[in-house]
Every structure is written in C-alpha cells, then in structure tokens.
C-alpha cells in the first residue's frame, strides 16, 4: 500500500514512523529540508522536498499511483488543496487535517466537493476526550468503541483501594459486574492478565465494559470521585481545544472559566461562547490563578500551546488543591516523563490524530479480509493496541465457542457487541457474522481477527 504524507510536523513524523514500521511504502513531502533529512536518517521512507500543493512536487512523489494521501501540514487550506490536487492526479483516497472551527462546521460539504475520504480535527477529538474524562473523573484515560457504547478506561489502583490483594477471578465473582481487566501495567511491565493475577497498589489497569457497568463497578468499590460531579472547570489557554471543550461543557451545564493572555482571542471567545467567563491574563501568574479560585475548582485543564507550561501549571494547580487535573502534552517523551508526577490525565492532539488516521489505514488495507478494523487505539506508550473489528461474514472461527478457539498468547477478546447487546465474553460465547469484536493485544500490526487465532479445536 503506497501512502504519501504531506507535512513533516509532529503528526506527519509520527504517522511516517508508525506506518513505515508496518511495512507500508511511505513517501513524505515537506518544504523544510532539515526536517526531511532528520526523517530520512531515522526512518525507512522516501522524501521529496517541495510544496505539497505543487502538482509537479506531487508527481515527483508518485501521488498519481498512491493508494492514500494524508495532508497534515499546519495550514488547513494547504491540506484541503493538496488533497484536491492529489485526487485530480489519480490518488485513490485522501485524508486532510482540518482544524479551523469554521471549516469543520461545514466539513460535510467540503468533503463532498474536495472528494475527501476523511477529515480529521485533532482539537475536536481532544476536546471530546477531555469532556469524557470530566464526566467520569475516576479515569485517567477513556477510549470508546462501537460508536461510544463500549469504553476502555485506564485508572490507577490506590493504596487504600479495597481491591488490593484480590485476584481478578475473585473480583469478578464478588461483584458480578460485566467488566473485564484487559491489561495491567505493574512496575514498568505491561501484560494481559489472567484470573489468577492479584491486584497491587500502584497497578495501572485498563478495563473494558459498557459505561453503566463501569459506573456500577467503581461505585461498588468506593471511588469517591464518582459521588461528586464536576461543576466548576478552569481552563488555561484559549486555543481551539479550549473553544470546543468549553462549548461542550456549557451544553451539559458546567460552569467554565478560560484564562487567555491574547486580548484579541479573548474577544473572539467572548463573542462565540457567551456562557463562558473569559479572563484576559497570563495563566502562569500564580496570583491570578489564586484570584480566579484555582483551589476551589472541580477540574483544572491546561491547554496552552507549550507543553512545559501545561505541565508546570498542572503541578501548581495540584499543589493548591484543584480537583481533576488534565494537561495537554503533545511531545511523547515529555508525556512519559510526567506520567508519575501526579497529573491525573495527559492528552495529546498528535496521538489522537495519529490513532484516527491509523484506524482508517488499517481498515483500508484489510477491506478484503474477513474482519475490518473499525477503531484502533495505542495504549501504555504504544506497547498495547486495542482494536475494534467488524466481522463481515462467516469464517472458520465464527459460530465456535471461545473455549474451543485457541487464541495466541498476549491477545485477548475483550468484548463482543451483537445487535446493540454488549457481551463480556466467557468460554461459552462465540463470535458471529455481523459482530463488533474488541481485541486487546501486545502484538503489533494486526490486520485481521484471524491473526489472533492459533487454531480451532
């Protein structure tokens, strides 16, 4: 599969790194020679120097024979025009990163006119991720499958948690709630547990199930965060993520305050978000944060354009007693460094964009196989993948009970959704044609559901 990536920024480089590792034929276009040299030295890809909206440059990158063109420069207009030219030259599919709220509001029309296969809005994706975390504050990360009906939640087991010392089998038996622990991160090691695993303080768990089952489970073992709904939210930074997030939170009745140091941007936010309190000022001024009541907010969200600033602001807010702490950190290395600093949740527009595009690429590649990849997320610093497959027709593994299917090590069938019914499977359940099947795996590059089946007994 030949893929051309236009734009060697953070998103473009991350996509090139992951797709080239998956053995896709990758060509990258960028006007910055230094960035291209950096990519060539580290990745097995071909690079073309030039402007992505130049048809001659696209021809040099062999766009006319490309299966997919991904335009992810910093300029929406460049991305959309690049995709239009690529389709005119013969590219089979195109994806554009479109971030401007005005453009994205009419994305249906633009997709049709520009013949886009997909449009990705990183800031909107991140805003939706944050809003889910605020609605379910016990979680440090939430991913969704089957159009939001199934959740994959990450949370850390505290020392005072009554589950400490219990095996997973004992937990399932005692609580009788349909959830499943899919992956555990313990002292830096990641694995898919069996029922004999005993939970320990500090374990980071990834749990799947329906939202209602998750709520019931956490309430049963006494998570106090669930008892207090988040009402007051303080956002530092008034960029696009803040706009999308504030608009969403206001609709569900939360009181939102945004601190933004650019006066013109403050005026724009006041015009388009009349229910939001917008403060003109520098969020790094701790006196201003105190005046705005940082110690009394239920949630603090750091969304400035600088990772280090978001980290420092979050740590300060935590020291002052703010409730749920969320920081936007786009650089992977920085996110790993601060994972244990006490920040409740870290979100990344770069990662959200890459996951959305990788899901599409996997789906296109295996469209002729027995099961399509519908959704994909990378967990635990890309050590684990969670994938949603849609089983298109009957195969050698459908209609057979799971106890008679031998699944390869380090793979787990976590959930089956059949006609809106959510099934946390046991040995007596089976996979049927039409099912959505969620798989958690420590293997990379799964393309078909059959890849995890060792044999049928």
TrEMBL record:
Q: How is this protein annotated for GO cellular component?
A: plasma membrane
Alphabetic keyword roster: Ion transport, NAD, Potassium, Potassium transport, Transport
| Protein name (Swiss-Prot/TrEMBL) | Trk system potassium uptake protein TrkA
**InterPro entries assigned:** K_uptake_TrkA, NAD(P)-bd_dom_sf, RCK_C, RCK_C_sf, RCK_N, Trk_Ktr_HKT_K-transport
User: Is the Cytoplasm keyword given for this protein?
Assistant: no
Q: Where is the RCK C-terminal domain?
A: 140-223, 374-455
What high-level taxonomic lineage is stated for the organism?
Bacteria, Bacillati, Bacillota, Clostridia, Lachnospirales
- Taken from the record, one Pfam family name reads TrkA_N
Is Transport found in the keyword set? yes
Show the GO MF annotations: potassium ion transmembrane transporter activity
Q: Which residues form the RCK N-terminal domain?
A: 1-124, 230-347
Q: What PROSITE patterns has UniProt attached to this entry?
A: RCK_C (PS51202), RCK_N (PS51201)
């Amino acid at each position: 599969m030949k893929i051309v990536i236009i734009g060697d920024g953070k998103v473009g480089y991350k996509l090139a790194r992951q797709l080239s590792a998956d053995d896709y034929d990758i060509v990258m276009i960028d006007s910055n020679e230094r960035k291209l040299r950096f990519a060539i030295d580290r990745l097995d890809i071909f690079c073309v120097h030039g402007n992505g909206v130049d048809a001659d440059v696209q021809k040099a990158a062999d766009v006319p024979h490309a299966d997919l063109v991904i335009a992810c420069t910093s300029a929406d207009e460049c991305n959309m025009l690049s995709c239009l030219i690529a389709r005119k030259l013969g590219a089979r599919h195109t994806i554009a990163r479109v971030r401007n709220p005005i453009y994205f509001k009419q994305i249906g029309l633009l997709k049709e006119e520009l013949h886009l296969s997909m449009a990705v809005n990183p800031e909107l994706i991140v805003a939706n991720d944050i809003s889910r975390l605020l609605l379910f504050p016990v979680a440090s990360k939430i991913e969704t499958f089957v159009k939001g009906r199934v959740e994959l939640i990450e949370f850390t087991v505290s020392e005072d948690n009554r589950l400490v010392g219990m095996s997973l089998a004992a937990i399932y038996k005692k609580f009788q709630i349909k959830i499943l622990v899919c992956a555990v991160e313990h002292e830096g090691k990641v694995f898919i547990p069996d029922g004999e695993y005993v939970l320990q303080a500090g374990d980071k768990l990834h749990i799947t199930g329906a939202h209602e089952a998750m709520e019931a489970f956490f309430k049963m073992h006494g998570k106090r965060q669930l008892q207090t709904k988040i009402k007051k939210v303080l956002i530092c930074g008034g960029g696009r993520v803040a706009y999308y997030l504030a608009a969403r939170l206001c609709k569900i009745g939360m009181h939102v305050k945004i601190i933004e140091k650019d006066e013109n941007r403050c005026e724009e936010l006041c015009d388009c978000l009349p229910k939001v309190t917008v403060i003109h000022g520098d969020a790094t001024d701790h006196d201003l944060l105190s005046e705005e009541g940082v110690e009394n907010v239920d949630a603090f969200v750091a969304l400035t354009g600088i990772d280090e600033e978001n980290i420092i602001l979050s740590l300060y807010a935590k020291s002052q007693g703010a409730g749920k702490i969320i920081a936007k950190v786009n650089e992977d290395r920085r996110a790993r460094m601060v994972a244990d600093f006490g920040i409740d949740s870290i979100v990344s527009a770069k990662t959200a964009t890459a996951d959305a595009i990788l899901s599409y690429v996997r789906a296109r590649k295996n469209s002729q196989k027995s099961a399509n990849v519908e959704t994909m997320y990378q967990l635990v610093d890309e050590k684990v993948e969670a994938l949603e497959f849609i089983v298109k027709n009957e195969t050698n593994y459908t209609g057979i009970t799971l106890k008679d299917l031998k699944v390869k090590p380090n793979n787990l069938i976590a959930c089956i959704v059949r006609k809106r019914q959510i099934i946390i499977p046991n040995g007596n359940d089976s996979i049927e044609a039409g099912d959505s099947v969620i798989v958690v795996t420590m293997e990379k590059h799964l393309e078909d559901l059959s890849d995890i089946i060792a044999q049928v007994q």
